[in-house]
Structure formats: structure tokens, C-alpha cells
Amino acid sequence: MFTPLRTDDVILLLLLSKVSHHPPAAAHHVMSQRGWTLWQEITIDSKFRGKYISVMPLGCIHLQFHSSGNHYVWGKVTSTVHNIIVGKLWIDQSGDIEIVNHRTKDTCHLKFVPYSYFSRDLPRKVTGVVADSEGTAHHILSGTWDEKMESAKIVESSRGCGGSEGKQKTVYQTLQPKLLWKKYPLPENAENMHFFSSLALTLNEPEEGVAPTDSRLRPDQRLMEAGLWDEANAHKQRLEERQRLERRKREAQATQALEGGEEECERTR
Questions:
Q1: What is the residue range of 80's domain?
Q2: % of the chain with per-residue pLDDT over 90
């Protein structure tokens, strides 16, 4: 669990807790002084296919802006890790996301195009359409999920040919696109730091005045940050074994209480 994340211009109160280990499930809540709140509950399903593993996140993400009341809800796409056994690991994102504004009923449909060796499409391509509550398209989105996304306002639409399954394809004429998002450049030596961003590299830094449940206070976490991998792993194993013993103790007490209650019921009949 993390508590306040401070930067020069914003303070976030971020709470993150792993609800379940098997199956993995987490709850996440963020409040910003900039006037927005984000929360989500995520668990996953996975499929192992020998050469790759696909991870399908289950659950919804909510983002609400306090001043306007706009409340957006969406899910996540499938992440696939290739070359699990042999070769260089690489990740692809694929699937569709439907973002809904619950106040206005506007929608944004995003399509993450899966990589194909035989496709001429740009790798990691993302396309999308923003529509109002009546289904009329107003903006086109395009870009990649790892570099940048752009938006172009639709000025005219018409029915063309070449759609799949005999359906007509809608052709849009747009204004010049505007940049919506662009990836920050990675810090120096990123290849030696798991390609983490500058923000990710600072998330485990200690901070005064945090909650006692903050994960940054875990002794094994501090040992790992100091580069003492063997000591950190040994401490983590001791901690997990204590947790297992405590869990078995609680389960035994619960079983004993249940059996005692059943015996008491039998005597009072």
C-alpha cells in the first residue's frame, strides 16, 4: 500500500492493496488535489499456449472529474507475452476497449490491433472513434500504445466500400490531428533499469509520515532497494512462512469453533 505521492505541483493520495494472492486481485484508489478521483478493482485470467502466455484483466476502471461530474468507465485489453520458453521476450496488446461517460453517455471505442508478421499495419497500432449518446462520430483517434496518440475532428463522413462481411465501410474526412499524449523520454541507462520511467524509479523511495502498512516500510523491500538481493529474498521467505503459519492457525481455530458450535447444538436439542 502506498500513501501520499508528492511532486512539485500535485499531491496524490494513492491506496493500493492486494486483495487476494490466488487468484490475484487488487483494489486501487487515487485522489488528486487537481480535482479528480480514480478507482479500480482488477483480477486476471490467463492462458498459457506453450510459446506465449495471454493475460486478460477482469474488472472496471473508474475516473471521475469533480467539477464537471464526468464519470468515465472502461476495461483493459489482453496482454500477451511471447517467447516464454525460448527467444527474446516481447509484449503485445490486443483487443477492444469501450470507454463510457456515464454523465453524457458519450463513448469512445478503441481497437488495439494485434501484431501480425504478414500485416502492413504499424506495429502496436491503436485506432478509435469518439461518438455522442446518439452514436454520431465526432473524433477519430490514432497512434500506438507505446509512443503517442492523436485526435482529429470529423468534418464529413460517407459510406465507402471494402468493409468486412459485405458491410459498407464508413469513410471520414477530418481536420489536422492534434497530439493528445506522447511518451516521456526514458532516463539514461534505462536498459539497465528494466526500462522504468523516472516516476517508476522513485516509487519505492522512503518518505516520512506514511501509514505503517505502506509497502515501502517492508524490510525486504529496503534490502532489495539497497541491492542486497539474497538477504531480501531470505527475509521475504521468512515473512511469508510466518503468514502461512498464522493463516493455518486461524483456520484451525475456525474449524474448532465450528465443531464446538455443532456439539452445543446437539446437546440442546
A1: 35-183
A2: 54
